[in-house]
Amino acid sequence: MSRTTFLNVDDTKAGMEDLDKEKINKLIQDASKNSKFFKQQQRREEDNRRRIEVKLSKIKSFTPFQIEQAEKS
């Protein structure tokens, strides 16, 4: 399973700076992995990754002339 970004401990709160963030995040992941929310968020993250890959691929296909023209407009 890939690492999710939507369920992580917030260690910026007061008194949380010395906690084992990795261990807590693993516990959160293990406790949540079969929930409807978790599965929906995983689908959303995967959809976002795919959209980003498509856009990056498109950007890489632009010629220097196309980039120059886009910057002017």
TrEMBL record:
This is Uncharacterized protein. It comes from Rotaria magnacalcarata. One of its GO terms (biological process) is error-prone translesion synthesis. PANTHER family: DNA POLYMERASE KAPPA, DNA REPAIR POLYMERASE UMUC / TRANSFERASE FAMILY MEMBER. GO terms for molecular function: DNA-directed DNA polymerase activity. InterPro entries: DNA_polymerase-Y. Coiled coil: none annotated. One of its GO terms (cellular component) is nucleus.
